[in-house]
Design goal:
By secondary structure, the chain is α+β, with helices and mostly antiparallel strands. The chain has helices spanning 5-12, 16-30, 34-63, 100-107; strands at 77-80, 84-85, 111-114, 121-124, 130-133, 140-143. Strand 5 and strand 6 (140-143) form a beta hairpin. The protein is elongated. Mean pLDDT is 76; it is low at 65-75.
């Protein structure tokens, strides 16, 4: 019995302890052993990383120009993305910048959205338009609404 990809996606975002508890719960709900759930998660992670690496290889080979001079690597960008809002932000840990400037930015977080590229939760202020760089995949996205 296959576990839905939405459940596997949510497992990928969890820390180890939460993941262990969820695997136990999912195994009971789907009539599988925890090892089978872990194996299915590992297969899913391998499949998604293969898709992402194939896409990046395709993009790299398509944009390669032998006559171009050396340039600095650019970050992937998503010019104007439609945000997917997260309704319950209380269980999110948006503490990825321990500096004083980071703490000040974290206090201005009023909304949480999912990164359009990797689905990582991002805390953002309510000002628009805003340019956001995901710390997980380094994709830049501009949100206008």
């Amino acid at each position: 019995m296959a576990i839905p990809s939405s459940i596997l996606d949510s497992l990928l975002l969890m820390d180890e302890y939460e993941k262990m508890l969820s695997i136990d719960r999912i195994s009971r709900e789907h009539g599988l052993s925890p090892e089978q759930v872990s194996q299915e998660l590992a297969n899913y992670m391998a499949a998604t990383s293969n898709v992402q690496s194939n896409a990046s290889q395709t993009n790299a080979s398509a944009s390669f120009d032998a006559t171009a001079e050396k340039t600095s690597p650019s970050l992937p960008s998503n010019p104007t993305a439609e945000p997917k809002y997260i309704s319950s932000t209380s269980n999110l840990r948006m503490r990825y910048d321990p500096t004083q400037q980071g703490a000040a930015r974290q206090k201005s977080v009023e909304q949480a959205i999912l990164c359009p590229t990797c689905s990582a939760p991002l805390g953002i202020p309510s000002q628009r338009p805003i340019l956001v760089t995901c710390p997980n995949c380094m994709t830049q996205s501009r949100f206008e609404n």
